[in-house]
Amino acid sequence: MQATDILSSEHRVIERVIAALDAAAERLDAGASVRPGLFLDAVRFIREFADGFHHGKEEGVLFEAMARGGMPLDDGPIGMMLYEHERGREITAGLEKAAKRLEAGEANAAAAVADHARAYGELLSQHIYKEDNILFPMADQAVVPQEQDTVLEEFARIERELEAKHPRQSYLDLARLLCAEAGLDPDAVAPRQVSLPCHAG
Q1: How far does CA 178 lie from the centroid of its chain?
Q2: 0.90 exceeded by the pTM?
Q3: How many CA within 13 A on the CB side of residue 113?
Q4: What confidence score (pLDDT) does residue 10 get?
């Protein structure tokens, strides 16, 4: 198994939460009531699994291995992925703030929540597409076989650290619960349609 296979499988879990956020945002736009905690639970998933666990493996292990294979960290495809990780953190912070306003019953908070939820989904869907179809094939070429073993060992270390705090399964279960609460079948979630800018790649 390649390290990128593990990361791609995690993308499928993240896509469930993106779908839940999109569906919940549509319900808010339609004037329906949505539990503010759905968005706060999604923020926790994003910070602990998508960002802390998944992006942590990319930033702390895979990208470093690609750099040792000759790819720059601060420019090109890796530089773009790092920028998008940071942008995702900014949007997540905005989503949390708006969801807390919604929880407090503030006027116009629902629109802000929906906007941030959709913005996160748009960014991460494009990000995932670019990683799966552009960056990861590059990684498979850049990371030599002996480095692959090191990367996989580091991935396993990060996963053990996660398990010591929260079982991985708890995040998989949370993604499914968010889908169900948003009215989706977790097993029927399809990736968000992606339209990349013409300069992407």
Answers
A1: 14
A2: yes
A3: 33
A4: 96
